[in-house]
Amino acid sequence: MNELFIAVNMVLESASLIAITVGVFAGIIIGALPGLGSILGITMALPLTFVLPKEASIALLLALYCGSVYGGSIAAILINTPGTPQSAATLFDGHPMAKKGRADLALGWATTASFAGGVISTIILAAAAPLLASFGLRFGPVEYFALGLFALTCIVSVARENIIKGVLAGLFGLFAAVVGQDPLTGDIRFDFNSFELSAGIGLVPFLVGLFALSEVFWRLSEKHSGQNIVIRAGFKIPSFSELRQRFSVMIKSTLIGTWVGALPGIGATAASMVSYAEAKRSSPNSSRFGTGEPDGIIASESANNAVTGGALVPTLSLGIPGDPITAVMLGALVIQGVTPGPRLFTERPDIVYFIFLTLFAANFAMFIFGALLAPIFSRILRIPEQLLMPCIIVLVALGIYSINVDPFDLLVVFVSGIVGFVLRYNGFPLAPVVIGFVLSPLIEQSLRQGLILTDESFLQFFTHPIALVLFIATALFLVWPAVRKYVKRKRSAKILEIV
Fold it and tell me: Can you say how many angstroms the Cα of residue 151 is from the centroid of all Cα atoms in its chain?
């Protein structure tokens, strides 16, 4: 208990409070600017950790982490491009809600869900870090493959209007992600004799071009020219009755995000996709997903913000980074003389408690800043379209170029923007492309590693209990729509016979 009081005093120190405030504010701005993202924000802050006190350094990095993950939802909702890859699933329903004139409510749902996901995952982190970390270690290549396959089935759900086009779009995303170096052999694949493509297609340039630039092309096309979005600028917190109605989705998505975050190497982008897929299948409002349904925003934002707590589980308990962001933070902790691992909980419990309390404070600060900044950001859509579109292009170009200072990234944005426009023009949904692109590395690498471990016997995958459960769940979710349709048809036939 004495260590807890010490941790409280460390959080209440002026340096720590200032670091949390500045970190969350800067994180939201960085996350809202397409192309920057959490890793860049934390990397830019690393030099400051050499001059700041240990506690303030840790607080700054954690606050940047929380703020940047949430900030990505702002761009996703307002300009139809994920500010960070973690918010890729948020734009599926966030931007359609904004286009209906409810940008204020969409931002309110995103902020509320992000806050709930961050706080609940922190509670879970504090209560069950060693337990969750040991469970995460039970996941091997076979289990990761089963998890990726389970998440991939959401393509069927988000492309219900045209399954064939949705599957083709998903296959395109899967293929686009395999361009570059083979993760196991090191061979270069599908580079078309281009040195730049040997490193693969970057996730951020691909997503930004696919959504942001294709949106600009779409608006400029003759078919849609002159359309204006009438929005309600501001920030609107959902009512208590709405929160109660969708509370189960928020809790389930938070648990999924925390669990996936605790699996080393997965990350928030995959977590939001898995959560969105599950919400799409189980929500009573599933038919409205993709048209501005709050459950879609809740599922994505609760999960990706819950990863901030979940990813720290293996990082603190075992010294294993939960995602690329915590890998950078792991190095920063070591620089500060804090060595994550099982002994950290016994040797430095005050630091552990300090991290927990800092996450709580960062999430509360995120909610406050989100409410204050959302009205400013939401006024973006009130700018005349003739001025907004060029601003988006400039913003995208600056953000993408600043990541690697590589002109090739701008070419990727341009090409993927054209591809996105062509797909939209021909009625292909963009969501399956993102799902396939994000999940492709996980599925490919884990499948091939699993086959190596099982001597090329895929049937042995079904002898792994966790993987078997996921395979069964995948099969049920694929078969259930057809079964439900068959049962509905039978019932209708019986009613007609009675009549």
Answer: 13
CB-based burial of residue 484 (10 Å sphere; 0-12 exposed, 13-18 middle, 19+ buried)? exposed
State the Cα–Cα distance between residues 247 and 427, nearest whole angstrom: 34
Q: CB neighbours (10 Å) of residue 123?
A: 15
Return the H-helix or E-strand segment holding 120: helix 103-136
CB 443 within 8 A of CB 145: yes
Q: Helix H segments across 35-102? A: 37-45, 54-79, 91-99
Query: Across-strand partners of 188?
Result: 181
- Cβ atoms of 73 and 112 within 8 Å: the answer is no
Indicate left, alpha or beta for 158 from its phi (over 0: left) and psi (-120 to 50: alpha): alpha
Does the predicted model carry a pTM greater than 0.70? no
Q: Which residues pair with 181 in a beta bridge?
A: 188
Q: Where are the domains of the chain?
A: 2-451, 464-499
Q: Residue 339 in 3-state DSSP?
A: coil
- Give the integer Cα–Cα distance in Å for 281 and 273: 12
In the chain, the N- to C-terminal Cα span, in Å, equals 72
Nearest CA-CA partner of 315 in 334, 301, 300, 302: 334
- What is the residue-level pLDDT of the chain in tens, covering all 499 positions? 677 788 888 888 888 899 999 999 988 888 877 666 676 677 677 767 777 888 888 889 889 888 888 888 888 888 777 777 778 788 888 888 888 888 888 888 999 999 988 888 888 777 766 665 556 567 788 888 887 787 777 666 656 667 788 888 888 988 888 888 887 777 888 888 888 888 888 877 887 788 778 877 877 775 444 444 445 556 788 888 888 888 888 888 888 888 777 776 566 777 788 888 888 877 787 778 878 888 889 998 998 888 877 777 767 766 666 556 766 677 677 767 777 766 676 777 788 888 888 988 999 999 998 888 877 776 665 566 667 677 778 877 877 777 677 888 888 888 988 998 898 888 888 778 877 887 788 788 888 889 888 888 888 888 888 889 888 888 887 777 677 777 777 776 666 566 5
How far apart CA 378 and CA 381 sit, in angstroms, is 6
DSSP 173-236: HHHHHT-EE-TTT--EES-TT-TGGGG---HHHHHHIIIIIHHHHHHHSGGGTT-------S--
Give dist(CA 311, CA 113) in Å, integer.
Answer: 18
Closest CA to 207 of 403, 373, 44, 26: 403
Q: Are 106 and 94 in contact (CB under 8 A)?
A: yes
CA distance 138 to 280: 28
